[in-house]
C-alpha cells in the first residue's frame, strides 16, 4: 500500500469517529468471564424465538405470501403494518389518531429507530447547525450528529428529565446572539432515557412543544422524540408521548422501534412524522435503501396482529423488572452510604445511572475503568454521554449500568465488585461538596 496515495475520504467520513460502544462490546466478547453492565443489548433469554418461528412459518409456507415477503417492498414500508402501527399508537395514547392529525401516511418504516434518527439528521443538518440534546444523552446519536458537523448543545436534566426551562433560557440566549437560525432540532428521549433511565415528566411534555413553537420564528425547530424505550414500562404510570401534545402534527417527529420490545434481530423501527418531514424523509430513505426489510416488516406486522407482540411484552416486562430489582437491591446493599453516591431508580428501560463524587474518575483512562475490568466487571464511562462544555470539560464521575443482558444470577456479584471499587475510590477526607455537573440528582 505504501506506493499508492491515500483515499480522499469525505469531510463527513473524517468527522465520523468510531463509536465507543464497539470497543466495550469487543472487550466483553474477549472476556466471557467478565460481568458486563456495558452493552445496551436486549436479554437473549427473552427473545421471542417460538413466536417468530411460528410467524415466519406462516409467512413462508404460503407460496404467494412468501414471494411477496421475499420481494422488495416500498420505501415508506408495508401498508398493513403502517395501519397497524396507527392503531397501536391510538392504544398507547388513549386517543384517536385523528386527534393528533396522524394517519398511515405519516408513518415510515425504518431499519431500526436508529435509521429514523439518522435520516432526520440527514434531512435537517448542514455543518454548523445546532441540535439541542439532553445532557447526558445517547452517545451513538451524538456521534451521528457530529458526523453531520452539527454543533451539539446540552441541556441539563433533573429527576423530571430535560430541564425545559433551561432549554427556554438557552434558546433565548441563542436568539440574542443571532444564532436561532442555526437551531434545527431538539432531541429528547421521552421515556427511560439512555443513559440515565429518567423520563420526561408529564407537565414538561406540552411545555417542550410550546417552547419549540415559541422559538420557531423563520423555520420550525423540530422536536425529535426518541421513544425507543416507551413500551419497556415495568411499573408506574404510562405517559402520553410528546407527540400527543402536537395536535396539528407539525412540531414533533417520533421514532419508535420493534427491536427493544420484541426482537432486535428484525431491526425494524418507524418514524411518525409531520407531512412535510415525511415527504423529505422518504425521499432521503429512497436514496439510503429504498425500503427496509420487507420480510422483517411482515414479521412485525404478524406479531402485532396475532397478539404475540403484546404477550411477549408482558414476559419481557417480568424478566426486566426482576433484573432491575436485583440490581437496585444490590446497589442499596453494597454501594457505600455517601451523600454523593447516588443512582437512578427507573420504572422502565434498561439503565441505572450512577453518580459519584467529582473527585472519582470513572473515565476510560481514569484508572477505575481498568481496575473494574481487572476485577471482572465493566460499565460504560459516563463521559461518553456528555458534550464538552466551553472549556472542553466533560463530567467524569458517572457510569451507565445496563441490567438487560447480564444473567440475573450475576448481577448481585457484579454490583458487589463495583461497589468495592467505588468504596476504595472515595477519598474519606474530601469535604462533601455540591455536585457541579449537569446532572444533579
Ligand atoms: C435511545 C436509543 N434510541 C435508539 C436506539 C436505536 O435502536 P434500534 O435501531 O435498534 O431501534 C437505541 C439503541 O440502543 C437507543 O438506546
Structural class by secondary-structure content: alpha/beta
Strand order of the largest sheet: 2-9-8-7-6-3-4-5
Beta-strand content: 5-15%
CATH architecture of the largest domain: 3-Layer(aba) Sandwich
Question: How many domains would you count in the coordinates?
Answer: 2
Unreliable residue runs? 432-438
State the CATH class of the largest domain: Alpha Beta
Radius of gyration: 22 Å
> Which molecules are bound besides the chains?
pyridoxal-5'-phosphate
CATH superfamily of the largest domain: Type I PLP-dependent aspartate aminotransferase-like (Major domain)
Characterization of the model:
The structure is a single chain. The chain is an alpha/beta fold and 441 residues long. A hairpin with a 2-residue loop joins strand 4 (151-158) and strand 5 (161-162). The protein has an 8-stranded mixed β-sheet with strand order 2-9-8-7-6-3-4-5, with helices on both faces. The protein is 40% helix and 14% strand. Helix 6 (112-124) crosses helix 10 and helix 12 (308-334) runs parallel beside helix 14. It is globular. The chain has 14 helices and 14 strands. It folds into 2 domains: 11-46 and 311-425, Aspartate Aminotransferase, domain 1 (Alpha-Beta Complex), CATH 3.90.1150.10; 72-306, Aspartate Aminotransferase, domain 2 (3-Layer(aba) Sandwich). Bound molecules: pyridoxal-5'-phosphate. The site of pyridoxal-5'-phosphate has 13 residues, from helix 6.
Amino acid at each position: 500500500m505504501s506506493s499508492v496515495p491515500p483515499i480522499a475520504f469525505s469531510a463527513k467520513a473524517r468527522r465520523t469517529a468510531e463509536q465507543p460502544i464497539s470497543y466495550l462490546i469487543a472487550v466483553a466478547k474477549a472476556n466471557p468471564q467478565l460481568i458486563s453492565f456495558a452493552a445496551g443489548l436486549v436479554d437473549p433469554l427473552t427473545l421471542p424465538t417460538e413466536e417468530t418461528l411460528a410467524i415466519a412459518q406462516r409467512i413462508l409456507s404460503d407460496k404467494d405470501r412468501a414471494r411477496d415477503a421475499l420481494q422488495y417492498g416500498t420505501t415508506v414500508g408495508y401498508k398493513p403494518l403502517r395501519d397497524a402501527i396507527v392503531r397501536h399508537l391510538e392504544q398507547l395514547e388513549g386517543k384517536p389518531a385523528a386527534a393528533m392529525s396522524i394517519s398511515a401516511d405519516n408513518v415510515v418504516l425504518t431499519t431500526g429507530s436508529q435509521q429514523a434518527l439518522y435520516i432526520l439528521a440527514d434531512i435537517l443538518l448542514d455543518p454548523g447547525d445546532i441540535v439541542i440534546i439532553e445532557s447526558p444523552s445517547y452517545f451513538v446519536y451524538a456521534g451521528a450528529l457530529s458526523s453531520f458537523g452539527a454543533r451539539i448543545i446540552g441541556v441539563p436534566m433533573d429527576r423530571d428529565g430535560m430541564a425545559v426551562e433551561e432549554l427556554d433560557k438557552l434558546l433565548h440566549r441563542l436568539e440574542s446572539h443571532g444564532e436561532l437560525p442555526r437551531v434545527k432540532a431538539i432531541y429528547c428521549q421521552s421515556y427511560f432515557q439512555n443513559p440515565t433511565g429518567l423520563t420526561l415528566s408529564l407537565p414538561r411534555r406540552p411545555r417542550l412543544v410550546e417552547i419549540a413553537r415559541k422559538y420557531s420564528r423563520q423555520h420550525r425547530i423540530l422536536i425529535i422524540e426518541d421513544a425507543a424505550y416507551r413500551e419497556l414500562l415495568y411499573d408506574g404510570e404510562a405517559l402520553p408521548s410528546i407527540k400527543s401534545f402536537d395536535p396539528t402534527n407539525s412540531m414533533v417527529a417520533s421514532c419508535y422501534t420493534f427491536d427493544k420490545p420484541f426482537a432486535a434481530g428484525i431491526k425494524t423501527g418507524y418514524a411518525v412524522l409531520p407531512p412535510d418531514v415525511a415527504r423529505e424523509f422518504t425521499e432521503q430513505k429512497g436514496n439510503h435503501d429504498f425500503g427496509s426489510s420487507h420480510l422483517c416488516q411482515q414479521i412485525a406486522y404478524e406479531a402485532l396482529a396475532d397478539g404475540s407482540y403484546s404477550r411477549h411484552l408482558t414476559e419481557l416486562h417480568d424478566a426486566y423488572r426482576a433484573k432491575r430489582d436485583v440490581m437496585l437491591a444490590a446497589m442499596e446493599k453494597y454501594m457505600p452510604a455517601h451523600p454523593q453516591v447516588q443512582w437512578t431508580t427507573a420504572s422502565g428501560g434498561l439503565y441505572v445511572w450512577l453518580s459519584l463524587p467529582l473527585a472519582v474518575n470513572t473515565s476510560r483512562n481514569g484508572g477505575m475503568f481498568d481496575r473494574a475490568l481487572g476485577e471482572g466487571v465493566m460499565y460504560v464511562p459516563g463521559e461518553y454521554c456528555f458534550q464538552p462544555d466551553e472549556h472542553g470539560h466533560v463530567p467524569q464521575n458517572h457510569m451507565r449500568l445496563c441490567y438487560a443482558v447480564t444473567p440475573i444470577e450475576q448481577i448481585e456479584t457484579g454490583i458487589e465488585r463495583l461497589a468495592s471499587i467505588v468504596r476504595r475510590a472515595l477519598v474519606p477526607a474530601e469535604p462533601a461538596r455540591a455536585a457541579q455537573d449537569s446532572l444533579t440528582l
